[in-house]
Design a protein that fits this description.
Number of strands: 12
Structural class: alpha/beta
CATH architecture: Alpha-Beta Barrel
CATH topology: TIM Barrel
CATH class: Alpha Beta
CATH superfamily: Glycosidases
Helix content: 40-55%
Shape: globular
Number of helices: 10
Strand order of the largest sheet: 1-2-5-6-7-8-9-12
Largest sheet: 8 strands, parallel, barrel
Strand content: 15-25%
Number of domains: 1
Radius of gyration: 21 Å
């Protein structure tokens, strides 16, 4: 009898702990938002943005961590709506897999837009694809373009409803097309150029439709490094910078080249430019799910966590040296992320110094 009571007691304790964990999660994700808040656009002079892709990480960023990112100098947060395919269905995805509660994940994105605005941040709303892990689409290109077109217009209308400041329809779709339909063969420049061209043509087509429902600034957010990217009429050309495979000694040269591409493309578009995603990953993804794996190393064996702050510093130095068309902002990934997060690292202070000097 004592053994049975002990077992029942243990089960009860586990149930209580599980309930407590669920309550903590709910208290973070189901934020109580006022109904009478008036949504207005407030475009910052310089965009200083934080991108933490997962909906749950972003909710934590805007609640538990809000004081920290304000001290960092950030004035903008990204709401990153990610899609991918599962068995031919175009679905919201997170952490590499389709969410079972599709309506719930959509509501989480909307709630994060509301929360960010109510916390005083500008919002950059962006659509992305691949489930965060570049999962295969497995559908013809024509179907992809039709599906992303519908999604782009849907979220343009949502962005307008909440007076989102900037919007990037189908961000980095050039890279996704190159990866999915051309095998990401970096030595095949003809296929690389085709992917850029398809992206440009898609953006040429979707921009007038987006303008009909969205009156904020629209960003062409590129994923490939090319001097031929962009679409006339976009307000801002956005380009990413990442340190994958680079040493400190050869990273600066790459950054200068990327910034040169951005200025050329922005001039062709007739608008401004910015760094839409500065990504300095320092850990591998965990093979067993969320969380971090081992530290990444450069080809010479240097651990990336030891040089993350140096890589950030190089980007900021080159950003501030620009004498031609100056950028209008920069967003980095990520504050909390398990593979590239900067919280409580030397890179956090480097970012704070940069953002607070702008």
């Amino acid at each position: 009898m004592r053994k049975i009571l002990a077992i029942l007691g243990a089960i009860t304790l586990l149930a209580l702990l599980a309930g407590l964990g669920y309550w903590i999660y709910q208290s973070r994700s189901a934020v109580d938002l006022p109904d009478d808040f008036v949504y207005q656009r407030q475009h910052p002079e310089v965009i200083k943005a934080v991108l933490d892709p997962g909906t749950r990480d972003l909710t934590i960023l805007l609640t538990d961590e809000v004081d920290n990112i304000q001290a960092l100098g950030a004035n903008t947060v990204y709401v990153y709506v990610d899609y991918s395919y599962q068995d031919g269905q175009f679905l919201y995805t997170q952490l590499g897999g389709a969410e079972t509660d599709q309506a719930g994940i959509e509501q989480e994105h909307i709630q994060n837009i509301q929360l960010a605005k109510q916390q005083g941040f500008a919002v950059h709303l962006t659509l992305a694809f691949g489930g965060g892990q570049n999962t295969s689409f497995g559908v013809p290109l024509e179907k992809l373009l039709a599906d992303i077109g519908a999604a782009d217009l849907k979220w343009a209308a949502i962005g307008e409803q909440y007076q989102v400041e900037t919007y990037a329809p189908s961000s980095e779709i050039d890279f996704q097309i190159f990866r999915e339909y051309y095998g990401a063969d970096w030595n095949n420049r003809a296929d690389f150029a085709k992917a850029v061209q398809i992206s440009n043509e898609y953006h040429d087509d979707v921009l007038p439709k987006v303008r009909e429902v969205f009156s904020g600034k629209v960003i062409y957010q590129a994923g490939l490094w090319s001097s031929e990217s962009g679409s006339k009429g976009y307000d801002i050309f956005g380009i990413g910078v990442n340190s994958v495979g680079r040493e400190v000694s050869n990273f600066r040269e790459l950054v200068v080249e990327i910034f040169g591409f951005a200025q050329i493309n922005a001039k062709r578009q007739g608008g401004d430019w910015m760094v839409t995603e500065l990504w300095i990953p320092v850990y591998e993804r965990s093979p067993s799910g969320p969380g971090r794996g081992p530290a990444l190393k450069t080809s010479s064996g240097v651990l990336y966590p030891e040089i993350q702050d140096d890589l950030y510093r190089i980007v900021f130095e080159e950003y501030q040296k620009i004498t031609g068309q100056k950028p209008v902002g920069l967003g980095f990934t990520a504050y909390l992320g398990s593979t590239s997060g900067v919280k409580n690292t030397p890179a956090e202070a480097v970012i704070a110094d940069f953002f607070n000097s702008q």
